Each structure stands twice: as structure tokens, then as C-alpha cells.
Amino acid sequence: MAILEVKDITKSFGKAKILKGISFSLEEGNVLSIIGSSGSGKTTLLRCINGLDTATTGKITVNGQTVFDSDITDKNQLKELNKNKQNIGLVFQQFNLFPQYTTLENVTLAMKLQAKRRDDYKKKRKEILDEIDKTAKYFLDKVGLSDKLDLYPCQLSGGQQQRVSIARALALRPKILFFDEPTSALDPELTGEILKTIRQLAEDNMTMVIVTHEMNFAKDVSDQIIFMDNGIICGRGTPDEFFNSDNERIRQFLQSYQK
Amino acid sequence: MSLVEQFPIVFQSLNIGFLQTVKLFLVTLMGALPLGLIISFGSMSKFKPIKSIIKVLVWIVRGSPLMIQMLIIYYFPGLVFHNPIWGGGEDGRFWAAAVSFIINYACYFSEIYRGGIEGVPIGQQEAGYVLGMTKSEIFFKVTLLQMVKRIIPPMSNEIITLVKDTSLARIIALQEIIWAGQAFLKGSQGIAGQIWPLFFTGVYYLVFCGVLTILFGKLEKKLSYFKV
Ligand SMILES: Nc1ncnc2c1ncn2[C@@H]1O[C@H](COP(=O)(O)OP(=O)(O)O)[C@@H](O)[C@H]1O
Ligand SMILES: [Mg+2]
Predict the structure, then answer these.
(1) pTM for the whole thing?
(2) What is the mean pLDDT of chain A?
(3) What is the side-by-side strand order in the sheet with A31-36?
(4) In total, how many domains does chain A have?
(5) Is this complex scored with an ipTM above 0.90?
């Protein structure tokens, strides 16, 4: 069974139809890249899946659990759906680290707040917090930042900040991790370290959906590529199929990258 | 009377006036800091009528002199409704002045708060949301401190201006430090025709503002470990 299923998602802002019926699915452990020109609705799609925007119609399931269904309006049911969103994580283009917290604190904050809601928190406080610290350090080590634990975001390079934000998302152990142009806010010489980090995650069989303009990277790392244009998916397939597509729109798009 | 003889008399009198100045300053802050927050929420309200009323209020308060606002608040009830709610005593004058200052400064503070709240990038809330935080967790653990850091410099400016603005209460004869200094011009406690006490009040303002400047500087430094 697919770990992610997106069915007929549409999204309008006022009269503007931004997403016009998006459907796709993704198998566990696979990497899906979403490619498309600016304004085609890629960010809007990721925001709808992650609940930052509410899709107008459609249905989304993660790991068999519904996270969005436009037919559901009952408040209690909606709360249930919200809980299921814990299974997904999102890495932003602009990192969005919390400036007043250190690297380590950025990663532990959400976990600590979640732990406070546990019934046994008071009794096992010390163990729980130690465990959280260990988890955070494990993931910061994974992204190569073990020596930056006590630095603040303003003391880190853009690439390092983005790696903190990846560790922050990973630490909550999402079933699927979404990336919205994770290297677009970085200087070219810093994109490499982020792409390397994502490649490593792919090797660990992390399920990922990546919006990117890095064509060579997408070719290497993806199991599946989706091409979006003007709110619809107008091409999908393996990297081989995509980069050799005879679809006129896709060929045009790829050509613009060869300059 | 020689200057040396005058000094203790003037000093004591100015101290009493200064106490009234400080009292007006503190009461204004205690009222205007929270009221400003309420007004700023109103000015960001999605409910249009509230938003419009607040906008008009802020426009009137910021668009006219505090001195006139104080005169109206003090004299208007008595002159127009024949109901001098403040009474004629020093207490009445104090509360009329305090109410004027609180309303006036709350409007200024509200704009600063609004800038602080709106200045925190939306991405901060969104990051909190996708990490599974609740709305109140996001406010208290993520945005609040960033807001505070943003508003400290404009707030310290405004608060230092308030120190000096308290002297406007002289216009309704509140017995603050300017009033106390001026008394020796007309004659008081055997001293008359002396203008130096009035000039000397400036020292009090300088010291008061100097202390506040140092305090705000410390606060700013305390939050300088991160950038927003
Ligand atoms: N909150 C919004 N209100 C109105 N229009 C929006 C909003 N967010 C995005 N759009 C519009 O939706 C379209 C797709 O945007 P986006 O999803 O950011 O595209 P992409 O990420 O592919 O560049 C753009 O035309 C954009 O102007
Ligand atoms: Mg985008």
C-alpha cells in the first residue's frame, strides 16, 4: 500500500484556481521529486498536504490514515485528522529556524513540548529529557553539526542553518519528509552540502517528496518525478522517462535549464 | 536669602514635585502598557467595525497635542455637562492627567506592539505548526521573545519621551516638579523672583532619563545574543 496518497486536490485563492486536480501516490522508502516552473503551484501543493493551507477539495492519506478530506467538516473528526499530521515533516526554503534558540534547542523544542503532554512526564522527567537530548544529538550528528550544538542560527552559514532545520524535522521521526526548494535560498557553493545530506537520507530509505530546481540531483536521487504546470500534473515517470520525455512542455522546460 | 540658604528649601520642594512626576510616570505605564496591547489587538482585528473605531481613535490621539487632550479631559465634563467629575483638588487633577496620559500613550504603544507582532515573519508560526506545536506554544515559546526584542528600542524611546511629557500636566496645575520650580518665581516659602529652581528641575529629568537609558541598554544587550 502506498504510504502517501493524494487524490484530486484542488485549491483556489478567491477566484484564482491554483491547483486543478492533483493526484499521485508514493511508496514507502521512495523519493519523489516535483519539478515545474515558478508559479505552477508546487509550494501550494506542499502547504495543502502539510496543513498550512486548506485544500478546496480532495483527500490525502498518509500511512493509511486520512490527514485531509474535504468532505469531513465535523470538528472532532478534524481534530483526529490533525493528529495524523504528526507523521509528516516539512523543510522550508527559508529554513525558519527559531533565532532565539541554539542549534540543539531548535531541535529539542518541539519534542520537549510534546513530552510535557505525556501522562508520565512528571514522574520520568529526567529520563524523558535525556532521551530527547540524545535523539536531537543523533540527528544533528547525522547532518554533520555535532560541533555546532550551542551556536545560534545567526552564527551559522545558510547551509548549516538548513541542515539544522532538516535535523529538526527528522527528530520528530516523520514517515514522510517534504522539502520545498531546500537549496533555493542558498549561495551555489552551499547547495552541495544540503543535496549531500538529502542523498544520505535517500540511502537510508527515508520517504521524501522534494520540490527542486536541481535537475542533476533530481535525476540521481528520485524514484519518481512529477512535472507540474499551471496547477496540473502534466508529466510523471521515472527520471529516465522524464528526462527523455517527448512532451513539448517538458522539453521546453528542460531546455531552459541547459543554458 | 543667599543661594546656600535657598537650596535646602528649593531642594525639598522640588523633591515633592518630583515624586508626583514619578507617580504620574509609573501610573501611566501601568495603564498604558496593557491598554496598548488591547488596542493593538483591536487594530489587527478581523472584525471591521472594531478595527475602524480603533483606527479613528489612534488617529485622533496621535494627531492632536496631548496638552489639548488633557485640557479637554479635565475641563470638558464640568463645562459641558456641569459635572466636574475630577473635583478641584490635587487628586482630581492627578487622575485627569493620568487618564489623559494613559489613553495617549496606549495609542502610541499599540502601534509599536503592532509593528512588533506583524514584524515576526509568518514562517516562524508555520515552522511551529508543522512541528506540531499548539497556537499558545507557538506564541509563548517562539514569537513572544522575538516581539519583545523588536519593540524594545522604539518602546525605550517612547518611555523616555513620557518622562519629559509629564511636565505637560503643569497645564492643569498638577503639582509636579515644573510646578514646584515655578512656584519660586512667583514667591513661595520666602523665596520669590528666582528662576534658577525652574532651571534646576532639568537636572532631575536628566538623571531620570539617564537611568532609564542605562536600564534599556542593559535589556537590549541581554537580548543581543540572537538576531531577528
Ligand atoms: N495566499 C495566496 N493568495 C493568493 N494567491 C496565492 C497565494 N499563495 C500562492 N498564490 C498563487 O498561487 C500560484 C502558485 O504559487 P506557488 O504554489 O507558490 O508556486 P510555485 O511554488 O510552483 O512557484 C502563484 O500564482 C501565486 O501567486
Ligand atoms: Mg515555491
Answers:
(1) 0.88
(2) 95
(3) A88-91, A176-180, A207-211, A31-36, A224-229, A232-237
(4) 1
(5) yes
